[in-house]
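Structure first, sequence second, as always.
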């Protein structure tokens, strides 16, 4: 086994900053970067990257007491995470700044599901309670294709629906 070790320069026996490890041949099996004597980043021979682990078990393996993956856009283009396989169309999870930071789930570039900043879950549109959408509002109300169901006591949401008018009374609004 061959090992190349890079030290911090304070002394030859100090804590390694980088190690390149390989077998008896010339092939490198892993590259590891350390802080305080602990592997911080590792790239193994299968091109898997470990952050917080020297032995990654996935293409990207993040390990720690509170691991966090953060994606921050630096332009007006929304930040997104794309999941795709060869021959399979992609799903995007998008933090859409142009839509008040709504989280949208897109398939082939078309919005299929949205969670808006009020906590409303919207299917088929990007706008809660739209005529073309099914919406589960954060207060428990539901609206689908212009018809609503409301468990909240009070006035109707629109002209067509079912709502609770008083504690023991349901009303059909038409």
């Amino acid at each position: 086994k061959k090992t190349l070790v890079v030290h911090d320069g304070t002394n030859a026996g100090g804590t390694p900053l980088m190690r390149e490890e390989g077998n008896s041949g010339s092939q490198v099996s892993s590259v590891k970067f350390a802080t305080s004597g602990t592997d911080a980043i590792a790239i193994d021979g299968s091109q898997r990257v470990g952050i917080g682990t020297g032995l990654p078990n996935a293409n990207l393996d993040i390990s720690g007491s509170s691991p966090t993956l953060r994606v921050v856009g630096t332009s007006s283009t929304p930040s997104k995470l794309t999941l795709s396989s060869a021959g399979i169309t992609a799903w995007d999870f998008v933090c859409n700044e142009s839509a008040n930071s709504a989280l949208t789930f897109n398939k082939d570039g078309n919005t299929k599901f949205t969670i808006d900043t009020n906590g409303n879950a919207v299917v088929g549109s990007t706008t809660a309670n739209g005529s073309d959408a099914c919406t589960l509002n954060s207060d428990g109300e539901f609206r689908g294709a212009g018809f609503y169901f409301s468990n909240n006591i009070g006035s109707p949401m629109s002209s067509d629906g079912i709502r609770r008018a008083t504690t023991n009374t349901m009303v059909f609004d038409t």
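Margin note: Residues 47 and 59 are 7 Å apart (CA to CA).
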